[in-house]
Amino acid sequence: MNPELFKDSPSGRVIQVGQGEIAYWSFVPNPLPPMLTFDSALIRLLSDADRALGELAGLGRALPNPHLLINPFIRREAVLSSRIEGTQTDLADLYAFEAGQLALPGLKPTPAHADAREVLNYVRALEYSLERLSELPISLRFIRETHARLMEGVRGNQATPGEFRHTQNWIGAPGCTLNDATYVPPPVVEMSAALDAFEKYLHAQDELPPLVRLALIHYQFEAVHPFIDGNGRIGRLLISLLLVHWNLLPLPLLYLSAFFEQHRQDYYDLLMAVSTRGAWHEWVSFFLRGVAEQARDAVVRAKHLQDLQSRWRSKYQRARGAGLLLGIVDELFNVPVLVPRQVAKKFRVSHQSAMQVLRRLEHDEILKEITGKQRNRLFVAPEIIQISE
Question: Distance between CA 258 and CA 240 in Å, rounded?
Fold first, then answer.
């Protein structure tokens, strides 16, 4: 790491670790909060983000059965947050993997099993953490538990699931050394102190607006980089969890990974700019634009899904066998990729009865069977996938 880039930064200090040939430089961020000037431009961005988030929160509270719409949002976030880290799994692949199929036959090459498993782990980590919020505040222990679910069974033992790192890590081009790295986070002793200060800030009363605090917290977690692997995903996951934990949203409806993935280079550059030159204003502005954009996007997607569900339910309200039909239609918003035997098991009907309903939904172009086989069939709801992607 080039210490000259960081030596005059107001956001932290650069330190030399070790001596002689094994010496290297690392960056230790200052405790939060930093000095931040609220000019008119930043105030407008904050107002816009607050207004958009408020609309999304209102929609979430008004939904008659919001949990039917949560799963598509969670899985979209899992795909996009993992994609920032280089996975190739998309939303349809994830649903197919959950259904026991690695990929959707005939549509595209099979993704790597490890990629699909990583994305599914993100889903499980987020679902676990949302439940855990009722028992444990967001803390270092909470973060370690979430990381354990995220990294379970992936990328070998070097990921040390659920443990903060005991060795130095760094960020840079593949194969680079500590001295060639773009960024080297604090060594273990300084990392521990930084994490202690980070936890205190999570629990502190702060006069800064909550969305600004979220921007600061996300930067700080990424700067400390406390895990061997999975830091980016945990850092982005914390945004969604804190929005719910702080009662800014009633449900996990807002995710910023789509915005970060779309503006990936800006995302990395602005995080780095905070470390090198204290560019807090630029980073917070970027973050608030992301909140506003993704909150409006979530409102549109939620309304589309709600309208689609209403249309399908109206279609089958008086149909023969309406109970099973409506049950499967609702289930599609949880799992838009269905396997007949799983449908039969969930609704406690025969395989034949399940197939009759699935064929009817296929005939009505709500479902599409994509294997072309007589056995081990897989039915997909393309409209739900399209809205959710």
Answer: 13
